[in-house]
Write a structure and sequence with these properties.
heterodimer; A: alpha+beta; 3 domains; 33% strand; elongated
Chain lengths: 580, 202
């Protein structure tokens, strides 16, 4: 299939349609395009790429791991984690051939919340305040950084490829999946002792498996029993591992730990001069150098064996939590504040073109010169693609724009979806105001009484031996008509004393959660639809089968958007009037 | 003459080549139009929503209704009381003794009503209605996206059969059974409406 327009043009047009980025005439370099399986309500949490095949990528969410061997064009489920025990479920839904065929699991939010509660995390802590949404987008607020980190650490935390195995680190343990698996069935859980959150795994050249957990560093013995690393503090939260110059290097909640060559002791290094400076990730560079991320910093450290580790450089990178190597020797750092790129002799600069949600939780090294860099976060998976305004002919751009002409843009669709959902924060604020003002109207009682006495007198006429009516007297005695009004001041006093009633707070939390869900479902749906329309309009040499498949996929997406927008989104060729 | 022919051929080729994709799309539209006599997706969605009673028409007025309900009195009490008292009285008149009987009857009608006008501004029924609507909206989305999935899976199968007619009885039966299964699923979601709308093949 030859494409007149590369997918990145679709992305730009889709982003324009969605109102995510401003229109620009200049070339924009590299942009993030939405990719991967359809967004789940909890987002995507981890990503890994295959060192030997740039087309293969694994993406993990709170409960599922997908694999794609065609650069993200289609995904298959390879691991499904069950909620109760973290055991691998060998049977499950059929893997979908197309990302748009994958169903958004309606129960996932419930499962996620249940599991969070089991782990002692309040699900509401993960709800992003709508008022802060811009802060998240701009990366200027620190308020929810901890929440974002909690969210990122839930479910599949990290994935690593060693040999023929994909290691899946989760908040409930360690799992493995065959690297060649394209369907369910190869997933296994590695039990190495007590159940604990696994943050990372590393395999040394001598095939020793090291497991970074919330409760320390564990070396997995051949008998499958985990042995705590010698010389390392107990109950130290180990967040990331790397092998540098044959030695294990661990990023922990209390700084860097570098193992001795025999791994029977660890050197300590506090990065940034703070003993309690927690680190999040490590990236191994050449010449015994490593990059470490944490505490809003990325530092380069020289860790030569037998020498004292030296911090060579440090950069301020807000929210940096994961590191990866990109094309052209670039280094990438992602986190709750977006994606940052470093190139030799440059500082870290934020690269967020096309990224409509900057809360990222992982990034995968793109292997090979053509491999795309992948990142995942609260709004799904993203792929960094080259974008050059000069790559497209004017007719191609016009054709692509025509494909979306007459259709509502992303903002409009989102507005419709929010209205159709019925979760409106303004309405809840209105309730609170109404309750405060309701006492101004009274309780009214109405009484109407009609009371009549009738007196009759009968006189006995002896001669007739009968009584005859002599007089009748009817008199009103107790007629009453009263309207009474009472004002109850107690609600006003209560409302004045208690400005944040729990009923409204819970309603607000629910509404925010609903709105978040609407956004996470509708926007990716809209973007997929727009991208497919543009692709259909700009693709030549299309076979009949492909054309039909594309048209049906577009119609289905339109039908879903029609549902989510309460019937506002148009479906090509149908209207409520001609619906049979 | 040869030059003219060459130019004409090139022009013809130039005209035909870019039209290839459009041809496929036109053919695809023509093929999909074969199913225009079947209910479209909006119709199926409406039928499913009506059958599951999750149509917005059913719940749009709930919040307003919950407020207007308080225009009626919170309580309305009425009573009718009637008492009869017979009395005998003997009076002496100038004309002599007479027997006088008087009766005393009382009829009392009372009506009491009270309104809590604060509820016209704010009442908890509105909040409950809003929560119930929220649940129904979620149910509606679940049902209708399932309908979409089934509908287009069925259409995909129908198109496959059109594109590549089965060459054996076994394959034909298998294809038809898969289509029928999806038809039955759609029937289940629309209360049998879907099948009734399908053109009679016999």
């Amino acid at each position: 299939m030859v494409r007149l327009v590369v997918p990145s043009l679709c992305t730009l047009l889709v982003a324009l349609a969605a109102g995510a980025v401003p229109a620009r005439a200049e070339p924009v370099g590299e942009v993030w395009e939405p990719a991967g399986p359809v967004s789940t309500s909890a987002g995507m949490t981890a990503v890994a790429s295959d060192p030997d095949n740039p087309k293969v990528v694994w993406i993990g969410s709170a409960t599922t791991v997908w694999v794609s061997d065609d650069e993200g064009a289609s995904f298959s489920v390879v691991l499904q984690l069950s909620r109760a025990s973290g055991m691998v479920r060998d049977t499950g839904s059929e893997p979908a051939e197309d990302p748009t065929d994958l169903e958004d699991d309606p129960d996932e939010q419930e499962r996620v919340e249940d599991q969070l509660e089991e782990e002692g995390i309040d699900p509401d802590d993960l709800v992003i305040e709508s008022g802060d949404s811009n802060d998240h987008q701009d990366g200027t607020s620190d308020d929810n950084a901890d929440n974002a980190r909690v969210a990122a650490r839930f479910g599949v935390v990290r994935m690593r490829v060693y040999g023929d195995v994909l290691y899946v680190c989760t908040s409930s343990g360690l799992h493995t999946v065959s690297r060649s698996a394209r369907t369910l069935g190869t997933g296994r859980e590695i039990r190495f002792g007590r159940k604990v959150a696994v943050n990372d795994v590393a395999v040394t050249a001598d095939t020793k498996i090291w497991i970074a957990t919330d409760g320390g560093l564990v070396q997995l013995g051949n008998d499958g029993i985990g042995v705590p690393a010698r010389g390392l503090e107990e109950d130290l939260q180990v967040r990331a591992l790397a092998i540098s110059e044959g030695r294990v290097v661990a990023a922990t909640s209390r700084g860097l730990r570098i193992a001795s060559p025999t791994a029977d002791g660890f050197d300590r290094l506090s990065v940034g001069g703070r003993e309690d400076g927690g680190l999040e990730d490590i990236l191994v560079e050449v010449n015994a150098r490593i990059l470490v991320a944490g505490s809003n910093q990325v530092s380069r450290i020289l860790v030569r064996p037998g020498e004292v580790p030296v911090s060579e450089a440090s950069w301020n990178v807000p929210g940096a939590a994961r590191l990866a190597m990109g094309r052209d020797n670039a280094r990438w750092a992602v986190g709750a504040k977006g994606a940052w790129r470093w190139k030799p002799d440059q500082a870290f600069e934020r690269v967020t073109d096309g990224l409509f949600d900057r809360r990222l939780s992982d990034v995968a090294t793109g292997y090979g010169s053509l491999a795309a860099l992948w990142s995942v976060g609260r709004s799904g998976a993203w792929r960094l693609v080259a974008e050059s305004g000069h790559a497209y002919s004017a007719s191609a751009v016009r054709l692509a724009k025509t494909a979306l002409e007459g259709y509502p843009n992303g903002d409009k669709v989102l507005t419709w979806a929010v209205a159709a959902n019925g979760s409106d924060l303004d309405t809840i604020d209105g309730w609170a105001l109404e309750e405060r003002l309701a006492w101004l109207l009274p309780r009214v009682e109405l009484l109407w009484r009609w009371d009549r006495h009738r007196y009759e007198e009968f006189l006995l006429i002896p001669i007739l031996d009968r009584r005859i009516l002599d007089s009748v007297d009817v008199r009103p005695v107790g007629d009453d008509f009263r309207i009474m009004a009472y004002w109850d001041l107690m609600p006003a006093i209560t409302a004045a004393l208690d400005s944040s009633r729990s009923v409204y707070e819970s309603s607000r939390v629910r509404a925010r959660r609903q709105l978040e869900q609407v956004r996470e479902v509708v926007l990716p749906l809209y973007q997929t639809w727009a991208s497919k329309r543009v692709e259909l309009a700009t693709t030549e040499d299309l076979s009949l089968r492909d054309a039909i498949k594309a048209m049906l996929a577009i119609q289905r997406l339109e039908s879903d958007l029609h549902v989510y927008t309460g019937g506002h989104f148009p479906i090509a060729g149908t209207s409520p009037n001609n619906s049979k | 003459m040869k030059t003219v022919l060459l130019v004409a051929t090139l022009t013809l080729l130039g005209a035909l080549t870019p039209a290839h994709a459009d041809d496929a799309k036109t053919e695809a539209r023509r093929l999909l139009a074969k199913f225009d006599n079947e209910p479209n997706i909006v119709g199926v969605q409406n039928a499913a929503a009506s059958y599951a009673r999750v149509n917005p028409d059913a719940y749009d007025s709930w919040v307003t209704a919950s407020r207007l309900a308080y225009l009626l009195p919170r309580s309305l009490r009425g009573q009718i009381r009637r008492t009869d008292t017979d009395q005998s009285d003997v009076r002496t008149t100038t004309s002599g003794l007479s027997d006088l009987v008087s009766t005393d009857a009382q009829l009392q009608i009372e009506l009491r009503a009270d309104w809590d006008l604060t509820r016209l501004v704010f009442n908890r029924d509105g909040i409950n209605a809003a929560r119930q609507i929220e649940r129904l909206v979620n149910q509606r989305e679940d049902i209708l996206t399932t309908v979409n999935k089934l509908y287009f899976a069925r259409r995909q199968l129908q198109v496959e059969v059109e594109l590549e007619p089965p060459t054996s009885v076994e394959r034909a039966v298998k294809s038809q059974l898969r289509i029928d299964a999806l038809t039955a699923d759609l029937d289940a979601l629309t209360g049998g409406w879907f099948s009734k709308q399908l053109p009679n093949k016999s």
